[in-house]
């Protein structure tokens, strides 16, 4: 399992999801993508994205205005 990072700070919907989708395509099953976002809508977006794609949302949290996500590639 490898861990990759995506900084999507300053990007608005749908860019954080699109960038994450593109990165996840290049990962192996079981790899983890850590995402940092400043878009409040990304909380609902990443939850729905994982439900629709079969990837696993391992964690979703926030530190002030930064939203943090960990997604495991299916």
UniProtKB/TrEMBL annotation:
Pfam families per UniProt: TusA
GO molecular function: transferase activity
Coiled coil: none
UPF0033 domain boundaries: 6-30
Keyword Ribonucleoprotein: no
UniProt entry tagged with the keyword Heme: no
Stored InterPro entries: TusA-like (IPR001455), TusA-like_sf (IPR036868)
Transmembrane stretches, start-end: none
Key words of the record: Transferase
Matches recorded under PANTHER family: SULFUR CARRIER PROTEIN YEDF-RELATED
Family: Belongs to the sulfur carrier protein TusA family.
Protein name: Sulfurtransferase TusA family protein
